[in-house]
């Protein structure tokens, strides 16, 4: 079992890209695949559950003893990045739907495969993994506020509170609570401990499943919204360059160590496209434009991650205090 897990972790980039390719093939070869839209949320809940299971939840207070790292992570993702996004959306056409799609994906920091790429890039993946529940909760609380600021009166027309509440309950609260229950019971039951150990095989396959479903379901609709996707593409390319550099500079200013600096840079660059996709489907009249805009960012980001893994670690980093 451990050998299988090690193989998947060592080859997860290849697994993710295989899932993307298979998803694209399924999109254009399986009739009616878009009817599987209902499966995205359960797949996301599974992915987040097994991700949270990797975090020793009882040790979270100890993990947050590194207040300098946590503070820098929060400032970068919820203060600096929104300022960058505010500047970038000014160059988009004045289409509220297009802007909403870009805002949904760029204002939400990733909490799943960012840990993988941070590890591959020699960053502090453990601290970033420990911070994922907090990052997810904070972004779900702040996202409606940011959308109101950026979209003005259009926000109340386009964004309904129910999908956010639904996502918070089923994609955050329930998976997090289940992970905590499994971890607590595993300390008292050998059977639960073996079950928990078996679940440790699932993070990579669960993420690959979500990528496959997203591409298979959304790709047939991308062609119908190709103009919007192309309009958003330059914004995503600029963001892919600017965001990690801003995260790196902020971490250096905060006097973080080299590995923590890389973790902040990866977090700044990597967005939560998979988790916000259900919001896109919930926006009245948002399909196919908003899902297409979000999936475009996913593809740009995954290609960019390969460059981050290779080049971010070459940037000079300051030792922490």
From TrEMBL:
Molecular-function GO term, any one: antimonite transmembrane transporter activity
GO CC, alphabetical: plasma membrane
Membrane-spanning ranges: 12-32, 38-57, 69-91, 97-115, 127-147, 167-186, 198-219, 225-250, 262-283
Mode of membrane association: Multi-pass membrane protein
Database matches in InterPro entries: Arsenical-R_Acr3, BilAc:Na_symport/Acr3, Na+/solute_symporter_sf
Keywords noted in UniProt: Cell membrane, Membrane, Transmembrane, Transmembrane helix, Transport
Keyword Transmembrane helix: yes
Compartments in which it is found: Cell membrane
Family statement drawn from the similarity comment of this UniProt entry: Belongs to the arsenical resistance-3 (ACR3) (TC 2.A.59) family.
Protein's name in the database: Arsenite efflux pump ArsB, ACR3 family
């Amino acid at each position: 079992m451990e050998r299988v897990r090690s193989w998947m972790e060592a080859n997860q980039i290849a697994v993710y890209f295989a899932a993307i390719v298979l998803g694209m093939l399924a999109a254009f070869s399986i009739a009616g695949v878009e009817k599987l839209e209902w499966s995205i949320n359960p797949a996301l809940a599974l992915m987040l559950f097994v991700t949270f299971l990797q975090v020793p939840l009882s040790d979270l207070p100890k993990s947050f003893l590194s207040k300098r790292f946590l503070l820098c992570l929060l400032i970068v993702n919820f203060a600096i990045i929104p300022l960058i996004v505010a500047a970038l959306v000014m160059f988009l056409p004045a289409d509220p739907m297009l802007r909403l799609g870009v805002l949904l994906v760029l204002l939400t920091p990733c909490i799943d495969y960012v840990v993988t790429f941070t590890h591959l890039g020699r960053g502090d993946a453990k601290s970033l993994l420990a911070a994922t529940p907090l990052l997810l909760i904070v972004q779900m609380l702040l996202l409606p506020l940011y959308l109101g600021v950026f979209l003005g009166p259009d926000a109340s027309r386009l964004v309904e509170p129910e999908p956010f509440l639904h996502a918070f309950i089923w994609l955050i609260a329930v998976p997090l609570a289940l992970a905590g229950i499994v971890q607590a019971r595993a300390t008292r039951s050998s059977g639960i401990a073996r079950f928990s150990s078996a679940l440790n095989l699932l993070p990579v396959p669960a993420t690959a499943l979500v990528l496959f479903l997203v591409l298979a379901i959304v790709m047939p609709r991308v062609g119908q919204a190709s103009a919007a996707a192309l309009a958003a593409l330059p914004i995503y390319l600029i963001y892919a360059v600017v965001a990690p550099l801003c995260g790196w500079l902020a971490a250096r200013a905060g006097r973080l160590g080299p590995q923590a600096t890389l973790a902040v840079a990866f977090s700044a660059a990597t967005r939560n496209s998979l988790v916000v996709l259900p919001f896109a489907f919930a926006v009245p009249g948002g399909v196919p434009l908003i899902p297409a805009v979000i999936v475009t960012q996913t593809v740009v980001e995954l290609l960019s991650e390969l460059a981050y893994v290779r080049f971010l670690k070459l940037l000079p980093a300051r030792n922490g205090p």
